[in-house]
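Q: Okay, next protein. This is Immunity protein 35 domain-containing protein from Butyricicoccus intestinisimiae. I've checked the sequence twice, so it should be correct. Can you predict the 3D structure?
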Amino acid sequence: MTQDEKIALAKEIGEKIRILADLLTVERIQSDKLGNDWDCVYLGSGSNKQLLRQEYVEQENPIGTSADNPIIYAKDTPLINNAFYLVDGKTKVWMGEWTDWDTNE
């Protein structure tokens, strides 16, 4: 293979890598493990994306581990046993079901 052929091949491979990189998206979401998020790597975007990899990433300020720093609950939020959530303005703990957290006791 000549030097010119090697350069042409390298450019072709580089262009394919750039196209693939444009198709990758990364999202950080709350994981199923207290004090950790997931870095999710997807191929594609929108409703056509496919999950390629999920990795745990330790949170700098762990949420859900105390009533002072609860997970903000919204529809489809993953529920973690013994985690603190803010549900409709009230602090609750998920223990297979919602338990109210009263800080005055």
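A: Here is a summary of the prediction. Helices lie at 3-23. The beta strands are 24-30, 36-43, 50-58, 71-72, 83-87, 90-94, 98-100.
Q: Noted. On to the next one.
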